[in-house]
């Protein structure tokens, strides 16, 4: 964009801050709701939850560093800044990209962990999912390395006078742009794959069409993140605008944050059903608290008493997260199968249905005047 006297004072800084803090604040609320559900209601905090928390920390760091950059002139035309502020804005923006890249990479790991927990794919599919997401993460890390090694010495990346005055050398900026576009394209592909994979799996289940569509919609929100990644790729050419870097990369900064937050939101939406149940009055906080006695340990449910009728507690609801210590397969059994224990034991499932086995261990002790007897009973049921 040519800088003229009319547009010299253009400033995208306020727009940058409005977009970043509004969307990041909304994402933080959704993540807080997810943490409340996983810690307070279900008491089942998993690796995907830890990854989401780390991603939010990176997002806040990205917003903080970008805010500092805006305060020294980022978002304005370079011609309107002093040399000192121009170089400081470039430094802060370069550092912010470190947090930005990490903040949209980590949620993909969280989504993968959630999908493997919920859908329980076979070993080959599980290996492929982690290989795909791991490759995307490695490519993103290489992008960070390329960014900070563009110049020799590295500080010449933001101290632009070192190139003109002290003979510092920098690689062609288009090398960074091309690799960043490749990184963004791979990120978009991974987001789309993680959105489509559960859909292809869920559509094969024996359940009502309404439930299948609801599950597909909840787990397929990553397709929106794919669209955001594609839009971000169109803004990467701003990295090549060295003469007006602080203004030319402003949109890229916003879309990087948008992509990261959309991925986090998409990963959290499927986990929020218990909170929706509380709000709609379908359940009470006490019902979740009482279910804390059902602790999941390696697929076994160890408890003094086991009310088998509770298996049907969520038969009419969309259940993605673990409820009352049970995995999500609980809600994707056919309605006519739920609550019919003996029927499950007497006949096999048709092809394509999910088979689930719970091992229930009940220990009891009976005392008499003459001796103490200890019995141990193990019940295994499949449905």
UniProtKB/TrEMBL annotation:
It is a multi-pass membrane protein. It is found in: Membrane. It comes from the Eukaryota. It holds the Pfam family Fung_rhodopsin. The chain crosses the membrane at residues 16-37, 49-70, 90-115, 127-148, 179-200, 212-231. Residues 33-277 form the Rhodopsin domain. One of its GO terms (cellular component) is membrane. Keywords: Membrane, Transmembrane, Transmembrane helix. Belongs to the SAT4 family. This is Rhodopsin domain-containing protein. It comes from Penicillium atrosanguineum.
